[in-house]
Design goal:
mainly alpha; elongated
């Protein structure tokens, strides 16, 4: 086994998911925060799920790389295999995350929107309570 091939494979397997989730993080935080029933201070709920996504993506890609990596061939073969496995790991991880996030979004879109009062939220609340 070539130590260089092993190190390069692991490096690619960690950096790939970090880049992918990092790219999705800004919009993922917004979507997850909007799905929280009672948002926690500082978007703590959304941050938990984003960190979970990082762990899932990195761990999944590392498992693929360690299981199917090519550590005996040439460095070019090892890099090719590592990039392929990292792309596959990121794809599967992000597909799982997207599916889990999209389900509540679909539920929310399917619900009829609450009617908006032309009087504004305070006047509408007062009208409902008779005040």
């Amino acid at each position: 086994m070539s130590e260089l091939n092993f190190a390069v494979t692991l490096l690619i397997a960690v950096i790939g998911p970090v880049i992918a989730i990092g790219y999705l993080q800004p919009i993922l935080l917004v979507v997850l925060d909007s799905l929280c029933i009672a948002p926690l201070p500082g978007k703590a709920g959304a941050h938990f799920w984003v960190r979970s996504a990082y762990v899932l993506a990195i761990a999944g890609t590392l498992v693929l790389a360690l299981t199917f990596g090519d550590f005996h061939g040439s460095p070019l073969e090892a890099v090719h295999r590592a990039l392929w496995l990292t792309a596959a790991g990121c794809f599967v991880s992000i597909a799982i995350i997207t599916r889990r996030v999209w389900a509540p979004v679909q539920d929310r879109l399917a619900r009829p929107a609450a009617p908006v009062s032309p009087l504004g939220p305070i006047a509408a609340a007062a009208a409902r309570t008779g005040g």
